[in-house]
Write a structure and sequence with these properties.
- The complex is a heterodimer.
- Chain A is mainly β.
- Helices cover about 0% and strands about 55% of the residues of chain A.
- In chain A, the strands form three sheets. In chain A, strands 2, 5, 6, 10, 11 and 12 form a six-stranded mixed beta sheet that branches. Chain A has a four-stranded antiparallel beta sheet with strand order 3-9-8-7, with no helix packed on it. In chain A, strands 1-4 form a two-stranded antiparallel ribbon.
- Chain B contains no helices and eleven strands.
- In chain B, a hairpin with a 2-residue loop joins strand 5 and strand 6.
- The radius of gyration of chain B is 13 Å and the shape is globular.
- The termini of chain B are far apart.
- Classes of the chains: A mainly beta, B mainly beta.
- At the A-B interface, strand 5, strand 6 and strand 11 of A face strand 4, strand 5, strand 9 and strand 10 of B.
């Protein structure tokens, strides 16, 4: 069965520190992979996506993610976190022609001043 | 331009009352549309998706239903709300080579 795991429910980092949010998936084929960010009470905004090609993808707001097929992972990284990055982050996997996508349970990021 | 609209933003409904949440998209035709629910402190649960008018696929058996009466309209309904239907409901539209675009969500509180 397909699944997405975000093992960290909450993460707190200091402003200016580096960040890595983990995402592991279980899927029968190479999936489409996404990271979304959600501010409180808002919808989800796409940060970045991987469909094929270069396994290191760049997104908005200085975020990047690396697809590692051997580890079934798609971890999100940012070299220097800003206070405005405090939000909840969701990893999602799916395959378009199956019309089903699966979201992780989310990681809440707190940023200390 | 391509946009997705979802309303209302917030809703407080008594147990046993009906529900109708609406989602519309602009700037595209024959979109793939989705309803997700996000319970407090939990991730997103796919409720329904639709690949065309009148075509609805249900992911989770429950107290809700969905309809696609027009190409760019997707409606989430219930005949009688339960307390457990409370949550944050998100409509989304999937575009090939882009991914999901989400609406701004509806906060439903059943009292």
């Amino acid at each position: 069965a397909q699944s997405v795991t975000q093992p960290d429910i909450h993460i707190t980092v200091s402003e200016g520190a580096s960040l890595e949010l983990r995402c592991n998936y279980s899927y029968g084929a190479t999936p489409y992979l996404f990271w979304y960010v959600q501010s409180p009470g808002q919808g989800l905004q796409l940060l970045l996506k991987y469909f094929s090609g270069d396994t290191l993808v760049q997104g908005i707001k200085g975020f990047e993610a690396e697809f590692k097929r051997s580890q079934s992972s798609f971890n999100l990284r940012k070299p220097s976190v800003h206070w405005s990055d405090a939000a909840e982050y969701f990893c999602a996997v799916g395959k378009y022609n199956f019309n089903k996508f699966y979201f992780g349970s989310g990681t809440k990021l707190n940023v200390k001043p | 331009s391509q946009t997705i609209h979802q309303w209302p933003a917030t809703l407080v409904q008594p147990v046993g009352s009906p529900l109708s949440l609406e989602c519309t998209v602009e700037g595209t035709s024959n979109p793939n549309l989705y309803w997700y629910r996000q319970a407090a402190g939990r991730g997103l649960q796919l409720l329904f998706y639709s690949v065309g008018i009148g075509q609805i696929s249900s992911e989770v058996p429950q107290n809700l239903s969905a309809s696609r009466p027009q190409d760019r309209q997707f409606i989430l309904s219930s005949k009688k709300l339960l307390l457990s239907d409370s949550g944050f409901y998100l409509c989304a539209w999937f575009q090939t080579n882009y991914g999901y675009t989400f609406g701004s969500g509806t906060r439903l509180t059943v009292v």
